[in-house]
Amino acid sequence: xxxxxxxxxxxxTFILLGFSENPELQMPxxxxxxxxxxxxxxxxxxxxxxxxxxxxxxxxxxYFLSHxxxxxxxxxxxxxPKLLENLVVEDRTIKLAECVSQFFFQCSLVVTETFMLAxxxxxxxxxxxxxLQYTVVMSPKLSALLVSATYCWGLICSITLTYFLLExxxxxxxxxxxxxxEHSAIASLSxxxxxISQKLLFILATFNEVSTLVVILTSYAFIFVTVMKMPxxxxxxxxxSTCASHLTAISIFHGAILFLYCVPNSKNTGLMVKxxxxxxxxxxxxxxxxxxxxxxxxVKETVRKLFHTK
Length: 310
What we know:
The chain is mainly alpha-helical. It has one domain: Rhopdopsin 7-helix transmembrane proteins (Up-down Bundle). It is about 75% helix and about 5% strand. It contains ten helices and three strands; from the N terminus they run βααβαααβααααα. The protein has a three-stranded mixed beta sheet. α1 packs parallel to α9, α2 packs antiparallel against α9 and α8 runs antiparallel to α9. The radius of gyration is 21 Å and the shape is globular. The protein starts with 12 loop residues before the first strand and ends with a helix.
């Protein structure tokens, strides 16, 4: 396709179809996603508050959990309000700048969460396999460095991909058959060759997935071996129960990412893409505080005392 003048890109708009093909489900979906968003906000902000007010939770594991909750809150807030708006309005138009901005924050946060999950897996590996050296290995300095690295790499990936999107040319009204501004959808609607941009997305997504999954699977492999050597049956069951919860959330999150981004020339239908997007943009941020923290005895005790005090 021939490239058009860049000033026409400013006039470009996008229409997020969302779930408009099922008008009878618009209101039930609005109520469902509104409830999920409220639970997400209360759960994640509540988790940050609980961790801050309880000195017993001022350890690396909960330090990482507080940042995971912050990322989930931001991630859900970037996506869900626009999703809710498009379920109740007829005009689902979004400007080019708004669409690219949504992708920028979405990309930065999802990459950050991907590596945050890997950092948390490593933290659990140290706690289970080297409990006597845990406080030395997972020092405050290392913990802060690991968290900072996840945010920085998320920004680097997001800035790189957003740059190529902004370099492309767009014009007129463009239809995106989704409820979020996905990179592939935006790139495919440009009047420039999207090959480099889409290939870069595939490379970065594959690198992020492979590197984090190696850390996660290796960590849990050592945890499994260590737990199997424990003399107490109750201790083994408790450890396996905790690992199962973590691996469930990780499997859903990484499964959705692999499904959407790491399969070149995917033939996924629009509905399947939307379902996958819902999982990692809307559902996972709600589940994380429940799976990772609310089953924890110290967290529940802090919440109980907080309510009794009030």
